[in-house]
Amino acid sequence: MTAQVPHILIVGGGYVGMYTAYGLSRAAKRGKIRVTVVDPRSVMTYQPFLPEAAAGSVEPRHVVVPLRKTLKGCRVITARVTRIDHARKVAKVMPEEGPEYELTYDHVVVALGSIARTLPIPGLAEQATGFKNVEEAIVLRNKVLDRLDVASSQSDPDLRKAALAFVFVGGGYAGVEAFAELEDMARYATRYYDNVKPADMRWVLVEATGRILPEVGEELGKYTVDELRKRNMDIRLETRLESCQKGRVVLSDGDEFDADTIVWTAGVKANPALASTNFPLDEKGRVRCQANLQIEGLSDAWSAGDNAAVPDLTSETGADCAPNAQHAVRQARRLAANILQAVDGQPPQDYKHKSAGSVASLGLHKGVAQLYGVKVKGFPAWLVHRGYHVSRIPTFNRKARVILDWSLALFFRREVVSLGSLHTPNEEFRRATGSEDRRRS
Q1: Which of 139, 198, 214, 278 has the highest CB neighbour number within 10 Å of its CB?
Q2: With contact defined as beta carbons under 8 Å apart, do 30 and 71 qualify?
Q3: At residue 408, does pLDDT exceed 60?
């Protein structure tokens, strides 16, 4: 009787899910294991490039990696896992269309990642947009350029001020990079408007703590604040967004003003779908893991990335690994190797990595970086940022396309076209249909 081939179920197709499956794909093609990846999206988004995609420096399609094309030898299911019953080794899968069904497995990898951490702020759900996927980056780019069009065509001073006010909440990587890149793009775009100047725009970054970009250190964080303020950008530290109903922004420092564009980038939290599993969770809702990436108390369940509390063996304080791409990618590679070792009956190895540092872009030709304790600013830091991330984006195909985007930008001016009709693609057709109906009646 032929032994059953072990089935590895990977729940989530983000950094951890995709890189783990990629590390297992060769064994899957040889028939040693079966690998299934389940995710509601058929692509993995390389999030560090979202600010550049929003600003038009990189084509949005080039920051997403198609799972089916990349994970050869693996099965990819576009659906949500609604529950994991590890006692039975069964996951319930809900596809976009059709009935829910069960999927059995031998090993499971929980790679659900994180979602935006929001607060019950009046008007936030109705007025703000997030910044975690490529769709949101495209929408935000369109919104900024559309507001420039509106302001240029509007004589009412109050409406112009609201159209040209852009508020970003959150001073971490996502918030600062998106804030800086989009201001840089909008500043460039104003040269094509005869009645909109850079000084007419109001860019406000709201941060509840006393510093931004804590990952790059206090010195570079202060440098970033100074550089952004030199660009006439308003940085509000130790300030909270109290309300944004109907676009009326109310800040905790007492300031109030109207803004058509509000972006929420105030951190992330573990995916709440983890509550539908019977795995041990910590106080932050993350799966508790051992250093070898096995879920505590289990030898056939694994996790890593944003949704996992993995001990940082390089920390002297007993902290967990930071929820960033640097750890997620390396954990995934260790995780794939550990699963193959477990399948072969060998003990898995611990994950250990000392952070190499952090890099951040502040717009075209501007950035900050701290690598192995060395602080870099300005143009050199911007080059380091691009070099590091192009080396990390998966597949040669995507690396080449991103580099080609950058190379073309050396010879052609930045594109500042808003594809606003993407928001309401059928509006013109509906108007035509409505007018046709009225004519008939």
Answers
A1: 139
A2: no
A3: yes
DSSP one-letter string for 378-426: HHHHHHHHHHHHHHHSSSHHHHHHHHHHHHHHTTSPPP----GGGTSTT
CA dist., res. 422 & res. 414, Å (int): 20
Cα–Cα distances (Å) from 368 to 57, 168, 202, 401, in that order, read 18, 19, 23, 24
| R_g of the chain, CA atoms, integer Å | 23
Is the Cβ–Cβ distance between 232 and 135 less than 8 Å? no
Q: What is the pLDDT of residues 359-401, one digit of tens each?
A: 899 988 899 998 877 899 999 999 998 998 898 888 899 999 9
What are the beta bridge partners of residue 318?
none
Give the 3-state secondary structure of residue 112: coil
Cβ–Cβ < 8 Å for 123, 269: no
Q: Is the dihedral of CA 370, 375, 378, 383 positive or negative?
A: negative
* DSSP alpha helix (H) spans, 165-259: 173-189, 218-230
Encoding tokens for residue 238?
């130790």
Element (H, E) at 150: helix 134-152
C-alpha count within 13 angstroms, C-beta hemisphere, residue 102: 8
Burial class of 242 by CB neighbour count within 10 A (0 to 12, 13 to 18, 19+): middle
Q: Length of the chain in residues, anyone?
A: 441
Find the helix packing angle between 325-343 and 15-29, rounded to 10°: 30
Contact indicator for 247, 127 with CB cutoff of 8 Å: yes
C-alpha span between 52 and 182 (Å, rounded)? 8
Who's near 311: CB < 8 A, 6+ residues apart?
289, 290, 291, 318, 320, 321
**What is d(CA 219, CA 226) in angstroms, rounded to the nearest whole number?**
11
- Tell me the per-residue pLDDT of 234-287, one tens digit each, with 9 for 90 and over: 999 999 999 999 999 999 999 999 999 999 998 888 888 898 888 999 999 999
CB atoms within 10 A of CB 324: 16
